[in-house]
Specification:
Mean pLDDT: 95
Order of helices and strands: EEHEEEEEEEEHHHEHEEHEHEEHHE
Shape: globular
Strand content: 25-35%
Helix content: 10-25%
Oligomer: single chain
Largest sheet: 6 strands, antiparallel, barrel
Number of helices: 9
Structural class: alpha+beta
Number of strands: 17
Length: 351
């Protein structure tokens, strides 16, 4: 298939820059086979059955966007430059890979001060990324980063407004546990405590897995032949407990429904041999039409960017024509798109 097969025209006005309040009041487009239903996220209790299991990604977004100052001595005296850094992931040597703007104004060995408590030295440059070594580690680093950093909003939101204090809460799931993501598992942002309680009363079960979402999730596909696209790798873990719970649900005839494409990609990675097993490592699984799903019976997910790998994933689950129909309906009904937008529950028909 070609990249153009996953393109569509989206009105700019449908790109959400703030989430619904309360979270669970967002709209929910339920695609039950070929039938489309306009609902609210709170209506999940009507669509999920006792014995169904939601798989939740419990990664925690770090305030990865930093603004600092580089100092340099020159013949004219001390000169400064503003430096913006977006942390991507920790490296084995203790440095952080980061996108740095403008990278040309920072030389290897130079220091950037982000706050009185947090500064970093550029140790290397590779593949357009800088490798930063910070002055502190562990809990001290977490505290300093939390004080100095801003939430790394997606580019299509950041282009419209800067991150602010509201995003500290809005761009974090209520079950976030393990710090490491630089983008939120956004379908999970629709859940609040009352909704979780209502689903539990309905008899819906929950399992937690961890996939640290990387900035690569926003990278565009640059090849027309999608088989030539190389996915970014992200670290994930499916615990023995989660694998056992998911397997038991499958055996009992319940449905396994990942909340978000990140949870789906992780559990399908852990089940490439046919049955889900405990798993830990870096996954670069690329799900396109023709993919055989071993675990996921349905998917809750937001509406995705044109020509993105996530459009390919949902097309694999539902079928390319069905996804075109779903997105045509969502646009006609003015659903809100992308990270802070509305959501969908995709339930494939019988195959």
């Amino acid at each position: 298939m070609k990249l153009s097969d996953f393109d569509f025209d989206l009105p700019e006005a449908l790109i959400a820059t703030r989430p619904a309040v309360p979270r669970s009041s967002a709209r929910l487009l339920v695609a039950d086979g070929a039938a489309l239903h306009d609902c609210r996220v709170t209506d999940l209790t009507n669509w999920l059955r006792p014995g169904d299991r939601l798989v939740l990604n419990d990664t925690r977004v770090i305030p990865a966007r930093l603004s600092g100052v580089r100092l340099r001595q020159s013949a004219q005296g001390q000169v400064t430059a503003r430096i913006e850094a977006t942390l991507l992931e920790p490296r084995a040597d203790g440095t952080w890979a980061a996108l740095i703007k403008p990278l040309r104004k920072l030389k290897v060995g130079e220091r950037v001060d982000f706050s009185p408590e947090l500064h970093a030295t550029l140790e290397a440059v590779a593949e357009g990324q800088g490798h930063l070594r910070f002055n502190c580690k562990g809990a001290d680093f977490d505290a300093a980063l939390n004080a100095a950093g801003a939430m790394p909003l997606p580019p299509y939101i950041a282009a419209k407004r800067p991150a602010d204090a509201r995003d500290r809460t809005d761009y974090q799931t209520i079950w976030a546990r393990h710090a490491g993501a630089v983008a939120a598992p956004t379908a999970s942002l629709h859940f609040d405590a009352p909704l979780l309680e209502a689903l539990a009363e309905r008899g819906v079960c929950f399992s937690h897995v961890t996939l640290h979402v990387g900035a690569g999730t926003f990278l565009p596909v640059k090849v027309d032949d999608i088989t030539r696209h190389k996915m970014h790798a992200e670290w994930g873990q499916v615990s023995a407990e989660a694998a056992s719970e998911i397997a038991a649900t499958k055996a009992a005839g319940g449905r396994v429904i990942p909340v978000g494409t990140t949870a789906l990609r992780l559990i399908e990675t852990a089940a490439r041999e046919g049955e889900i097993r405990p798993w830990e490592g870096d996954t670069d699984i690329f799900i396109t039409p023709g993919f055989r799903f071993h675990v996921a019976d349905a998917l809750m997910t937001n509406f995705h960017l044109p020509k993105s790998t996530l459009m390919m994933l949902v097309s694999a689950l539902m079928g390319p024509q069905a996804i075109r129909d779903i997105y045509d309906h969502a646009i006609a009904q003015e659903y809100r798109f992308f990270s802070y937008g509305d959501s969908s529950l995709l339930i494939p028909g019988q195959k």
